[in-house]
């Protein structure tokens, strides 16, 4: 598939998507987001892909929405364009998405990063929501997901000052999983993605959904959902294979059925 602003490839069972507008630090224009969602959904439908890695380049994961594209917008044209509807489709991807982040992850770039399930950051990463400095505020989930990730007071500080935090600070606040030297961030993410891609994909899918329920729902509903997913997995061949392999003391071979 031909894209202008992303690159998509695969390595075994891992799909890799790289944002590709380096001259503007991967600023997220509407076309880029459309291309990204199209490719994420394509990879989500491809049974041979079991984990997805989303990355940018060493200097920028993404420096936010394309400011030039937004600068002359009016409220009603924004409302009618409803550009954030497509972001709900990113949140709806059922396979695990790992972000390999380096450099700037700002504004929409931070929001995109927070839509991923696991985040490996290079030590040069700067994460922030600088929208307030432009006279606006986050619109693709920043006030909600950042608050749930780092807690109220740190979210307030980041959102009200617009100042970014370092990778180490992000790690301390649980916003990223791991910080590694810049030459390692992609490699480390791929290593983890390959490990996840070896797991039974139906279980991975239901685990992702259940964890996301924990963020949105009361505990009792989440527990109920989890229990039903657990029962459902006993209809899969992978449950039979996984448990049989344990008993027979061999490595399981998961078919995704
Ligand atoms: N939009 C458009 N162009 C950008 C953006 C951006 N967000 N960020 C950088 N660029 C461009 C610059 O204009 C520059 O282009 P040119 O070479 O033609 O002048 C090029 O990228 C390189 O940038 P700089 O020269 O500024 O590089 P520096 O290293 O000096 O600075 C910074 C890097 C600090 C990242 C700086 O570029 C910056 O502050 N960028 C803007 C960051 C920002 O405010 N982001 C938030 C945008 S608003 C937003 O994300 C709202 C979210 C709503 C939902 C998302 C929907 C997609």
From TrEMBL:
UniProt organism field: Aneurinibacillus thermoaerophilus
One Pfam family of this chain: ECH_1
GO MF terms held by the record: hydro-lyase activity
Protein name (Swiss-Prot/TrEMBL): Enoyl-CoA hydratase
Keywords: Lyase
Family annotation (InterPro entries): ClpP/crotonase-like_dom_sf (IPR029045), Enoyl-CoA_hyd/isom_CS (IPR018376), Enoyl-CoA_hydra/iso (IPR001753), Enoyl-CoA_hydra_C (IPR014748)
Family: Belongs to the enoyl-CoA hydratase/isomerase family.
Gene3D superfamilies (alphabetical): 2-enoyl-CoA Hydratase, Chain A, domain 1, Lyase 2-enoyl-coa Hydratase, Chain A, domain 2
Single Gene Ontology BP annotation: fatty acid beta-oxidation
